[in-house]
Amino acid sequence: MTLLNKHSGQVPTKIRESRTDGAVHSLRDWIFARGLRTGDLLPSESELCAELNVGRNSLREAVRTLRATGVLEVKQGAGTYVGILSLKSMSDELIFHSRLAVDDQASYLRYLAEVRESLEQGLITNLITEGLKPDFEVLEKILEQMDEEAKSGFVTSATDRKFHEELLAPLNNPISILLLQVFWRIFDELLDSRYDPVAAGKTADRHHAILLAIKSADPRGARIAVNSHFDGLRNRIGSRDFKID
To answer: The pTM is what?
Structure first.
């Protein structure tokens, strides 16, 4: 059924697909049809041109487009491979737009913090309700390291990240970790680390509270602890402690 333009009564002109867009769609469909998986090597450029019936320039543009979104990975001197899921392009875009929102960057970062907090609260609740237990011994060692860092005035993002990744490992959900890595990268890029022994001590204490709630199989306590943990991030955002290029 063809729909008419409600204003002119005419059939709208179909937008023609560019050669590059056509090559992108053809290459993606070819990958699916051949059943390729992450890390698989694609044929040579000349072979792909013949397979897809596209010109060399169109194919190269298609590869550039898919490389930029992480679908393909080009290794110099080794060839083109099906890419590994990283969500890097997503974090690049979010960082870019947060920098554009320079007049209201605090609000933008608060929105991101709200999404990240909701994600972590949901994941930790799932961890408890499903009866899954992380490696408490490893987590305790990470907290010991965090306590030592707190004495020096700040907790590194690497230690914080290690704690959360280890905590959520039993869920065996790599997508959730990738999403959290997006947020970690954004806040690492946009917020300055600062010497603050009091804030660092509170950060360590809040992580101890999260672990205690997990050990007690207390989902409500865990959500409260996570919310308290994010108070530290909200305070940093509220102080407009942003990096300036």
So the answer is: 0.74
